[in-house]
Amino acid sequence: MLYLESVGIDFLSLISAHPPVVSASSADVKSTVEFVTSMGFTAPELRRICGMCPQLLASKVSDIVPVFTFLLREARVEGSDIRRVINRRPRLLASSVDRRLRPTLYFLQSIGISEVNRHTSLLSCSVEEKLIPRIEYLEKIGFSRRDAVSMVRRFPQLFCYSIKGNFEPKFDYFVVEMGRELKELKEFPQYFSFSLENRIKPRHQCCVEKGVCFPLPVMLKTNEAEFHDRLEFFCRLGTDF
């Protein structure tokens, strides 16, 4: 406890988030902290990483070294990017190479995502519990397997979104309120990355009020000023995009 507090990590918050930390030996905890800092992580970064992934401090250095080796050699992460990758997804450091990282890497490669080093946050995800269910959901709402895979290959962030909290409400709005066709989602899967309440609904309602129908990218990707400028332009023109 005293050691962790000396490096700025609150012990009580740590054990409340991950109780097994309390049984870790002080020697292992110190070795883990020293190893992570030796890899170039700053004290604030270390505190943030441990806060987001307290399991790290219940791990041994012998468990962490293979993760760095895997990221550099198999996932093809550049050495200069390793800190950014870990800071973005600290859970990678507490993931088993054999049971989680490597199987997920192989799955992503098998569906055509070749540059996995650009999507390393996905490597700590379970293939069976997270990745496959997203593809199956896209099939459930009407896409072919080939189209579903094409969508996640084009926009791998789809794997990160909740089915209940993201896919379902946004798809229901897309079909019921917007009355659009599946082919638009196939071409623009980024639709699911936009806020339903703050972007999709208000912009769609503006288009309905003005009698204009924009393609999804035009409706959602433009900033607020560009969107309204285009909307006014096509209203004056008296035609859709």
Automatic annotation (TrEMBL):
GO molecular function: nucleic acid binding
Signal peptide location: none
Highest taxon above the source species: Eukaryota
GO terms classed as biological process: DNA-templated transcription termination
Record carries keyword Metal-binding: no
Keyword Transit peptide assigned: yes
Pfam families: mTERF (PF02536)
InterPro entries: MTERF, MTERF_sf
Family: Belongs to the mTERF family.
Protein name: Uncharacterized protein
Keyword vocabulary terms for this entry: Transcription, Transcription regulation, Transcription termination, Transit peptide
Classification lineage: Eukaryota, Viridiplantae, Streptophyta, Embryophyta, Tracheophyta
